[in-house]
Design goal:
By secondary structure, the protein is mainly alpha-helical. The chain has 2 domains: 2-25 and 141-374, no CATH class; 79-139. Helices cover 61% and strands 10% of the residues. The chain contains 11 helices and 7 strands. Helix 5 packs across helix 6 (202-222) and helix 6 runs antiparallel to helix 10 (320-363).
C-alpha cells in the first residue's frame, strides 16, 4: 500500500504544480508585449518593420490562421486569413459566439468585446475596457484546431491501417500504401525504443509510445507548413504531454524503485540525506526535462528561420541595395535551417518517446523475475 500511496501523492503534487503555474503559461504573450513596447512610439510609422511582432506573432497562439497581407492599389491593407470560432462567457453577458473575423484583426469591437494583444476583453460603449467583467475564453484557437486536426489524422491513419491488416493486407501479402510507409516506423519504435528499455513489458506500453511518437511527429510536421501553428512550440502543450508521461512513469514504479530512492544501498550514512533529496527531485525533473526539451527545440528552430527572413527587411530599411544583397544569403540559410527542422521534427518525436521509455523502464527496474511473472 505504501508505494501506491506515494504514487498517488506524487501525481497529485505535480498536478497541483501544473495547475498553479498554468496561469503564467500565457507569459509568452507578456514576452511579446515587452518586446513590442519599445516600438510603441513609432507605431504611426506604418512602414517600419517590427521583427519582434512578426516573430512572436508566429510562435504564439492566435484566433485565426493568418497566411499573408497585402496592400491594394489604394494603399488599403488586406489580410488573407482563416477565421476561427470565438466562444466567450461572462456572468454579466452570458455566452457569446461569433467568428474572429468580426474583430477585423483587432481594429473593431463586436458584441461588447475586443481583442487586445491576442487577449479578448469586455469593453464599454465608448470602446474602453470594462474592468469589472471577467471574460472566460473557450475559443477554438489555431493551436487547438491544429491539434484536433492532427489527432483526427492520427486516428484515421491507425484505423485504416488496422482495417487493412484485418483484411489480410500486409499479412498474406506485402504491405502497400500507408502500410508500407508506417510499418517500418512502427517496427523501429518497437525494436529500438520499446524492447531495449522495457523488456518483457514492451507490449504493454507500446500503444502509448506509438501514440506519443506519431502525435508529436504530426504536429511537428504541420508546424513547418506556412500559415500553420507551432503547436509543439507551445509550453502548455508540452506540459500536458510531460504530465501524462509523469503519471505513466509513477504508476509503473514498484517497491524496489522507491527503496533505491529513500534508502540508496551501498551509500555512506552521511551522504544518504543529500542523495535521497537529489533522487526524489529527479522524479519530478524527468518529466520537466521532457517538457522543456521539446518546447525549446521546436521554438528555437522557428525563431531562427523567422530571424533570417527578417534580416532581408531590416537591411532593406537601411539601404535598398543592401536589402537585395542580403536576400540570397538569408534565403539560402533559411532553406538550410528549414531542412534541418524537418530532421528535428522526427528527431524530437523520437527523443521524447525514447526518454519516456527509458524513464518507464527505470521505474520498474530491479523487479525480480518471480515477481514479474506473478504480476
Amino acid at each position: 500500500m505504501a508505494p501506491r500511496t506515494v504514487k498517488l501523492l506524487l501525481v497529485a503534487t505535480l498536478s497541483l504544480f501544473t495547475f498553479v503555474f498554468s496561469a503564467p503559461l500565457p507569459a509568452q504573450d507578456s514576452l511579446h508585449r515587452e518586446a513590442t513596447e519599445g516600438h510603441g512610439a513609432g507605431e504611426e510609422k506604418k512602414e517600419a518593420f517590427n521583427a519582434a511582432e512578426v516573430i512572436f506573432g508566429h510562435i504564439l497562439d492566435n484566433h485565426e490562421f493568418h497566411f499573408t497581407a497585402f496592400h491594394d492599389s489604394e494603399g488599403k491593407l488586406h489580410h488573407v486569413s482563416l477565421p476561427l470560432p470565438i466562444i466567450l462567457y461572462s456572468k454579466e453577458r452570458g455566452v457569446t459566439a461569433f467568428m474572429s473575423s468580426k474583430f477585423e484583426h483587432g481594429e473593431a469591437t463586436h458584441n461588447g468585446y475586443k481583442i487586445e494583444e491576442e487577449k479578448i476583453v469586455a469593453v464599454k460603449e465608448d470602446g474602453t475596457v470594462e474592468e469589472s467583467i471577467h471574460v472566460y475564453d473557450f475559443s477554438l484557437t489555431r493551436n487547438v484546431v491544429q491539434m484536433m486536426i492532427a489527432l483526427a489524422i492520427l486516428t484515421w491513419l491507425m484505423l485504416s491501417i488496422a482495417a487493412a491488416y484485418k483484411r489480410g493486407e500486409g499479412v498474406t501479402s506485402a504491405p502497400k500504401g500507408k502500410q508500407s510507409l508506417l510499418e517500418p516506423v512502427i517496427t523501429f519504435v518497437r525494436d529500438e525504443v520499446a524492447k531495449p528499455n522495457l523488456g518483457h513489458k514492451h507490449e504493454k506500453y507500446l500503444p502509448y509510445l506509438l501514440t506519443t511518437f506519431f502525435f508529436i511527429l504530426i504536429n511537428n510536421v504541420f508546424g513547418l507548413l506556412p500559415g500553420t501553428a507551432n503547436v509543439t512550440g507551445n509550453i502548455a502543450f508540452t506540459v500536458v504531454l510531460g504530465l501524462i508521461s509523469f503519471v505513466v512513469i509513477i504508476f509503473s514504479t514498484n517497491k524496489h524503485f522507491w527503496g533505491h530512492i529513500f534508502n540508496p544501498p551501498g551509500v555512506p550514512k552521511f551522504v544518504k540525506p543529500i542523495l535521497v533529496l537529489v533522487e526524489f527531485l529527479g522524479v519530478f525533473i524527468k518529466p520537466f526535462a521532457l517538457i522543456i526539451r521539446l518546447f525549446a527545440n521546436m521554438v528555437a528552430g522557428h525563431i531562427i528561420i523567422i530571424c533570417l527572413i527578417s534580416l532581408i527587411f531590416i537591411f532593406g530599411q537601411m539601404n535598398t541595395y543592401v536589402g537585395w544583397g542580403t536576400t540570397p544569403v538569408a534565403i539560402g540559410f533559411t532553406v538550410f535551417i528549414y531542412l534541418i527542422e524537418i530532421l528535428v521534427a522526427f528527431l524530437q518525436a523520437f527523443i521524447f518517446t525514447n526518454l519516456t521509455a527509458v524513464f518507464i523502464g527505470a521505474a520498474f527496474e530491479g523487479e525480480h523475475p518471480k515477481e514479474a511473472a506473478h504480476h
